[in-house]
Amino acid sequence: MREPLLEVKGLKKRYPVYGPLGKLFKPVNHMNAVCDMCLALYEGETYGLVGESGCGKTTTGRAILGLIHPDEGEILYGGKDLAKLSDKEMRPLRKEIQLVFQDPLSSLNPRQRIGSLLEEPLIIQKIGDGESRRRAVIDILEKVGLAEEHYFRYPHELSGGQVQRLGIARALIINPKLIICDEPVSALDVSIQAQILNMLKRLQKEMNLSLLFISHDIGVIRYISNRIGVMYLGSLVEEAETEQLFEKPLHPYTQALFSSVPDLSAGRRKPEILEGERPMRTDEFMGCVFHTRCRYATDRCRTEAPRMREVSPGHKVACHNE
Amino acid sequence: METNNKPLLEMENFHIYFRDRKKRLPAVSGVNMTIHPGEIVGVVGESGSGKSVMSQSILRLREHEADVEYEGSVVFEGQEILKLPLAQMQSIRGNRISVIFQDPLTSLNPVLTVGKQMEEVLILHKKMSRQDARARSTELLRLTGVPYPERCVRQYPYELSGGMQQRVMISMALACEPSLLIADEPTTALDVTIQNQILRLLSELNQKLGMAILLITHDLSVMAQICHSVRVMYLGQIVEEAKTEELFDNPMHPYTQGLLDCIPHLDVDREKPLHVITGTVPPLSQIPVGCHFCTRCPYATEQCRKNEPPAVEISPGHRVKCWNPRMGNEKKREENAI
Amino acid sequence: MTEEKKQAAAKEQSQAILEEQRRLRKEKFLSNPALIIGLVGMVIIVLAALILPAVSSVDPNEMKVLDRLKPPGAEHIFGTDEFGRDLFIRVMHGARVSICVGGAVTIFSSILGTMIGIYASYFKILDNILMRICDGLIAIPGVLLAVALMAALGASIWNVILALTVVYTPSIARVVRAGALVAREQVYVEAAKIQGASDFRILWKIILPSVVSSLTVQASFIFAQAIISEASLSFLGVGIPAPAASWGNILQASKQVLSKAPWTAIFPGAFVIISVLSLNLLGDGLRDFLDPRVKGGRKG
């Protein structure tokens, strides 16, 4: 068995829910944004984390980056538990784990020119001298399909697709091992989205990157990922290799999610409609996360939370009934 | 859908210009569009295609911005909208034509309960009594599939989920039984599973109430689900229009083909790079002469770069604004054959 | 050869981009009338205050009993006061004092206020301590606080500066803190954190530049207020001690002869108004000019 590059074990993050008078009184309840989240990411692979908004996929990504501190659980990377590191201890590890933002423009300081924006990570991590940094910046600009002429531009002078290229360039310039992509293409037009996806895939091969790709778009996730984890209400409900998962989705939620995607190419199957809405996962929430909307739900599903079990090699599902 | 009767909305050679100091930037140039009663028309395009500006101009919502100019004609129920005095326009807004926007939370008043807001609309436009209005708003909420309408009227917008907020928006839009509903990206902010619920609702309302819907979106799959016919917009022009089935089966314009190809469908080959439309949408100040798409079109010829193509009717109801409409399609078929 | 050519071409292109950005900046400046008018007004007053007293041979404190309360005319363009001193030269000397005091107060309170505001925005404990002190100071009316401080310290130009710095630092600190709190929530601050930037770097390299524009705007308003406050203090007799000329002093002296010689109040008063107006226009103009996202010619 290969050693995973990153392993998340039993991650939990809860937020207080206040009554009508806000923070004057003690919270009336807690909302579990992420609960018992486990995932392992291997070197050189792209792991796709798919789920609807509020399912905890972004929270998971932010916990790995140390931007929020989880209440429980371990995040193992290179023999260290990132969940227990202080901001200061985390700093040297920053050059190995980087983030690509959903809205690239807001993640770039509007007062800096592109050259100095890209140089910034190198200066912070004390890599190279002035001349070598400048060369590195021009190299990376070419790699992501921008040009040297952009060196003196400001980010707001670029188009949407170019800004995301710039965002990716900034994440890549310090040669990280792991990149977390948080909905990197969902703010872009379809025609630009395809350009960025192709580029990400090419760069991943060239630089032997490991990607944690977070998205709500099933088509995008399927195209880019080797392995996929489906999240619902703060937990993973199913995990498998891409082909396996699309051939034989086992969890009722995965099935509903896949069939809700309208198919434009072949015969245009009308999407199925999943009724109801996502409940709130408070501390009292019991049973399977999906039981409120699942059409196969039994009494057992309503009381006992199913564990993740491996049904075939690499294919794990958390469901009582198969 | 039978569409032989008189059109509800007719746009003819409609232009919208933004004034940027000395220059006049054409946001919409020469759009012709007809919407018949009870029809769901979809307009699809990327950002910068002018689709939202066009739909807002039907209500003249941009009037207060002095830098907008209109040309051409927009006739709604026999009235020329562009020349109506503003007072009369206001009686059309929200009454004969309603709008729902992408983000329901920003279009709902945060400090009033849902019920209060709906009653206001009914009292203002329908001259109902407070009591009738209250009963009617509960009824409307039930119509849009809100599970507990009696509770919902007492709630504030922020207490509702995104899907519920959009349902509330729709029921408010329905309050005056409009003959046209403009839905500007109504599902973009919602999750897929909720998106499908809302789309089904729109389609049901269309059948039940016979209300025409103009659906603006960037998402082709949303179009495919409920629209009767689709217009594809690029840089202020309609480049292709057809019945929905026809458009997806037989796209003729290279831009439509490109759009369809670059979506990562569930059956796309993961080992191959995705199809891309090269380049980006040029800014309004740099619209090319000739065909607007010529800078990104893989099949562009000298003619495309010089002269603007006319909209040719290829088969009944299927119009394409392209000099060589078949070429792309044949090429694709060849590819498929190999 | 080709490599050289390519480099030359790239260099040329970046030159062109810098050129274009310079042109856009110029356009942005020229399409901002508030900034231009404010700047021109201030430059004229500052130059006049610096040059005229230096080149003029007239002593601002020289009394000529025969020339008492002369109306404006060819000999004394602003007229004279009740001691027969030339009002024009006194107003110019007063401008010197006012601008020195205003400038010094602005600089000192900006430096202090920025330090307080930035640290308060980033560290919660400091926030509570520093901001409560600032709240307390803001609660006391500015002039009253200054009068009290002046009474304790004694009248001198340095004490005026000190007292007004104490009065205006909290308002700068508030503005900087508010700006910094907004900046702290920006995604690009998070991005810097992900790159491994230290707190110190984030505070001074990312947050500070993003509050500079609101700081500059606030500073120009403080400048204006400091001029008024200095005049008020002097008018109340606790500011710059007589016989040194300051706008407040001159106004105070004019009080007794206002009905006979209104010009003794009009001219210094007009200068206070013009300089304050210029500074306020300057502040408004700067706000638009310093925001990189506001394009030339258009607001918002």
Keywords:
heterotrimer; B: 338 residues; alpha/beta; 8-stranded mixed beta sheet; 4-stranded antiparallel beta sheet; 36% helix; globular; C: 300 residues; flat
Task: Please tell me about this protein's structure.
- The complex is a heterotrimer of chains A (322), B (338) and C (300).
- The radius of gyration of chain A is 21 Å and the shape is globular.
- In chain A, the strands form two sheets. In chain A, strands 6-7-8-3-9-10-12-11 form an eight-stranded mixed β-sheet, with helices on both faces. A four-stranded antiparallel β-sheet of chain A has the order 2-1-4-5.
- In chain A, α3 packs across α4 and α3 runs parallel beside α5.
- The longest helix of chain A is centred in the middle third of the chain and has 18 residues.
- Chain A has 322 residues and is α/β, with parallel strands linked by helices.
- Helices cover 29% and strands 23% of the residues of chain A.
- Chain B is globular.
- The relative contact order of chain B is 0.13.
- By secondary structure, chain C is an all-alpha fold.
- Helices cover 75% and strands 0% of the residues of chain C.
- In chain C, α8 packs parallel to α9.
- The longest helix of chain C has 38 residues.
- The C terminus of chain C is likely disordered.
- The chains are: A alpha/beta (322), B alpha/beta (338), C mainly alpha (300).
- At the A-B interface, α5, α6, α7 and α9 of A face α8, α9 and α11 of B.
* Shape descriptor of chain C: flat
Count of alpha and pi helical runs of chain C:
10
Total beta strand runs of chain C: 0
User: How does the major sheet of chain A shape up?
Assistant: 8 strands, mixed
Overall structural class of chain C, as computed from helix and strand content, comes to mainly alpha
Distance between the termini of chain C: 48 Å
Task: Chart the SSEs and their pairings.
The complex is a heterotrimer of chains A (322), B (338) and C (300).
Chain A: E1 6-17, E2 29-41, E3 46-50, H1 57-64, E4 72-77, E5 80-81, H2 87-90, E6 97-100, H3 114-124, H4 130-143, H5 160-172, E7 178-182, H6 190-207, E8 210-215, H7 218-224, E9 227-232, E10 235-241, H8 242-247, H9 252-259, H10 299-303, E11 309-312, E12 315-317
Helix pairs in contact in A: 3-4, 3-5, 5-6
Chain B: E1 9-20, E2 23-35, E3 40-44, H1 51-58, E4 68-76, E5 79-80, H2 86-92, E6 97-100, H3 104-107, H4 114-126, H5 130-143, H6 149-152, H7 162-174, E7 180-184, H8 192-209, E8 212-217, H9 220-226, E9 229-234, E10 237-243, H10 244-249, H11 254-261, H12 302-306, E11 311-315, E12 318-321, H13 325-337
Parallel strand pairs in B: 3-8, 3-9, 6-7, 7-8
Antiparallel strand pairs in B: 1-2, 1-4, 4-5, 9-10, 10-12, 11-12
Chain C: H1 2-30, H2 33-55, H3 87-122, H4 124-139, H5 142-153, H6 157-184, H7 187-194, H8 199-236, H9 247-254, H10 263-290
Helix pairs in contact in C: 2-3, 2-10, 3-4, 3-6, 3-8, 3-9, 3-10, 4-6, 5-6, 6-8, 8-9, 8-10, 9-10
